[in-house]
User: Fold C2H2-type domain-containing protein from Meganyctiphanes norvegica.
Amino acid sequence: DLIKHQRTHTGDKPYQCDQCEKVFSHNGNLRIHQRTHTGEKPYKCNHCSKAFSYKNNLIYHVRTHTGGKPYQCNQCDKAFSQVSDLIKHQRTHTGDKPYQCDQCEKVFSQNGSLTRHKITHTGEKPYECNQCSKAFSY
Assistant:
C-alpha cells in the first residue's frame, strides 16, 4: 500500500494498456480501462436490460428508474441525480461563466452553450429540417 501511495507523489505509472499505450499508476485502473477496448459490461441494471462497463454509470442509470436525486442545491430547492448537473445549476446562482470563446472572448456558463456559439463564427449549419431542408446552426 505504501508503494501505491507513493505513486501519487512520484507520478510513476508502471501499468500500460497494450491496446492504446495509455499508462496507469494502479493495475486495477488499467483493468477497468481495458473494458473500453473489450466492451465488457459487468454491471447490470436490475430494472431493465441495460449493462455498463463502469459501476458509477450503473449507479447514475438506476436513478432514472428510482427518481433518486441525492445532490441538493444549497441556494434553492432543486435536487439532481448527478453532481455534474448540480455544479452546472449552481452557476445560475453564482453567475460563473468559465467557458470562453477563443474567437470573440464571449463567456458562457456551460460548455454546450460555447460549442453552439462557436458555430456562429464558422457559418456551419449542421441541423436540417426534415420537412423543407432548411438548415440551422442550432
